[in-house]
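Same chain as my last thread, 83 residues:
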Amino acid sequence: MADAEALAKAKGCFACHDVNAKKVGPAFKDVANKYAGKPDAVANLSERIKKGGVGEWGNVPMPPQNVTDEEAKKLAEWVLSLK
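reply #2:
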């Protein structure tokens, strides 16, 4: 999954997120915990990455990200793998 972390760095995810600590957005591990065990987690998180959103983690919006469907899925799977 090191390639997915490299993708996250290349796409600028770490500007607003950290693996362990809240920054502008939630920590990736917090996202993983929130979605843990949900059968549609990858699809939901992939869509949120692609389309952005606001309200689930507070009032700061996450803008839509410039990623392909495949990249969004890879990023979602990586985030969900974090414990």
